[in-house]
Design a protein that fits this description.
The chain contains 19 helices and two strands. By secondary structure, it is mainly alpha-helical. It has a two-stranded antiparallel ribbon. Strand 1 (172-174) and strand 2 form a beta hairpin.
Length: 517
């Protein structure tokens, strides 16, 4: 009996290990994979313009009206440089996503799919679990913020001002741990219904709201330009370069969302061409809009007088332009709506991918025959967000979840390294795996060391030294291989260094949830 039990246990662990360590083979003919996978139920309706708007909708929320001014209180006008530095780091990661999008068949999965092919099933599932924790709590947090902004807009009507109970939209705490919010679940139900109706309908809603948001931001920038006093830009970095770098680690999360484009591969008309354009294009637009808002807000009001809760709206109010503050409220509603819509969309596609691979119940793999959407996955995603947003105050918890996104970005960069390593050319394998592990470990350790030095105020000499060592390690790895294989994006070691550096600081410096941006 004991022998039989031991044999059964050994067989279970053997099967678990073999399953956990298997990887998903990458098809050689990507176009053929696209053809064979197009019959799964999803419909290719998204063009490059839709994908760009999808990325912008996921990235720019209410944060563009809040984070810009809040960080400027510490970094001064140098907050513009903070956004440029953070944007440059995101571009490196976006190039990794773009390369993987052209390498993989056009099916749903995103970071999970990349990890499954580059590493193994267990790592892919852990990446999915971390992303889902991030997405679920992030969606609930955004829904509560959106409900609060909707109530704020409704209170512009004199009859409703101060007459809407707090439990409707702002949330009312009960029994200490619970916080009742009625409007947030209602908004989630409406968006879930739109997403279940089809990608065409949800794309139209996202396009309308995103274009509205962009027009409001451009209007704010144009009107604010006439109120700029260039003397407010002096001194440009009142608290030194360190405050600019600290600001960069905070505003980095304002760009999060461009990766959502990668999860729409199966619904893109020409994924091999349009996905990279959508990822890079949406990020470039976001960088331009953030820089414009930063220059306006720091030029209108001296940085030390910027408000904490609504700095941009208060800046225009101080100039006698209260109507712009009203527009900002509408822009915040549009921004949060698109961020929430895209977040729910991405979650359902990730569940669909795992359902197809057998890592989740088969019900998650089903696609509606007429609506061509993963209705079961979409309803489940909406239900989880409805429960969390309706009875829990998830704002505090959502602040610690940014590490999940950083982990996902780092793993995607590592996927590029791993897949390139496994590529075979006519001349055979490239440099040994030991060399790669040493170089990449050196880069990661240097990134961590630079974060520690920066966090505890060490001399910049040590930070520069760690950075130089990491660059040399990356250059050594690249030069060791460049003669045998062509690299589409040789800058991925820098991205891994940046992700490690940000991960060290996120919990200490970022007062915002990544889904507010």
């Amino acid at each position: 009996m004991t022998s039989s039990h031991s044999s059964s246990t050994s067989s279970f662990f053997s099967h678990f290990c073999s399953s956990a360590l298997r990887s998903k083979p990458l098809p050689r003919d990507v176009n053929a994979a696209v053809v064979t996978s197009s019959g799964d139920g999803l419909v290719r309706r998204l063009g490059v313009f839709d994908l760009i708007l999808l990325g912008i909708g996921a990235s720019i929320g209410a944060g563009i009206f809040v984070v810009t001014g809040t960080v400027a209180r510490d970094a001064g006008p140098g907050v513009t440089i903070s956004f440029i530095v953070a944007g440059a780091c995101c571009v490196l990661n976006a190039l990794c996503y773009a390369e993987l999008a052209t390498r993989f068949p056009a099916v749903v999965g995103g970071a999970y799919l990349y990890t499954y092919s580059a590493f193994n099933e267990l790592t892919a599932f852990l990446v999915f679990a971390q992303l889902m924790l991030d997405y679920h709590i992030g969606a609930a947090s955004i829904a509560r913020s959106l409900a609060s902004y909707v109530v704020t807009v409704l209170e512009l009507i004199p009859l409703l001002k101060h007459n809407i109970p707090s439990w409707v939209g702002h949330g009312e705490e009960v029994f200490g741990a619970l916080s009742i919010n009625i409007l947030a679940p209602i908004l989630l139900v409406l968006l879930t219904v739109v997403l279940c109706r089809g990608v065409g309908e949800s794309s139209i809603l996202n396009s309308i709201m995103t274009v509205t948001k962009i027009l409001i931001v451009l209007f704010v920038i144009i009107v604010g330009t006439f109120e700029v006093d260039v003397s407010n830009w002096t001194p440009f970095a009142p608290n030194g370069f360190k405050s600019i770098l600290t600001g960069a680690t905070v505003v980095f999360f304002s760009y999060v969302g461009f990766d959502a484009v990668a999860n729409s591969a199966e619904e893109s008309k020409r994924p091999q061409r349009d996905l990279p354009l959508g990822i890079i294009g949406s990020l470039v637009v976001c960088i331009a809009l953030y820089i414009g808002v930063c220059l306006v807000i720091t030029g209108m009001v001296p940085y030390q007088y910027l408000g904490e809760d609504a700095p941009l709206a208060e800046a225009f109010t101080s100039k006698g332009l209260k109507y712009v503050s009203v527009l900002i409220s509408f822009g915040a509603v549009a921004g949060l709506t698109t961020t929430l819509l895209v977040g729910l969309y991405v979650q359902s596609r990730l569940y669909l991918g795992l359902g197809r691979d057998g890592l989740l119940p088969v019900i998650f793999a089903k696609v509606h025959p007429t609506q061509h959407t993963p209705v079961h996955s979409q309803v489940w995603v909406g239900l989880v967000a409805i429960i969390l947003s309706g009875i829990l105050n998830v704002h505090m918890l959502s602040r610690i979840l940014s590490v999940g996104t950083l982990t996902g970005y780092s793993v995607v960069s590592a996927c590029v390294v791993s897949l390139r390593w496994n590529d075979k050319t006519s001349s055979g394998r490239i440099s040994s795996r030991t060399e790669g592990i040493i170089c990449l470990s050196t880069i990661a350790c240097c990134g961590f060391a630079a974060g520690v030095f920066f966090r505890f105020g060490a001399s910049f000499v040590f930070i520069i030294l760690a950075t130089v060592i990491a660059i040399f390690s990356g250059a050594a790895l690249y030069l060791r291989q460049v003669s045998k294989i062509h690299f589409q994006n040789p800058n991925h070691p820098v991205q891994m260094l940046q992700n490690t550096f940000n991960m060290k600081h996120e919990s200490n410096t970022c007062p915002f949830t990544i889904r507010y941006s």
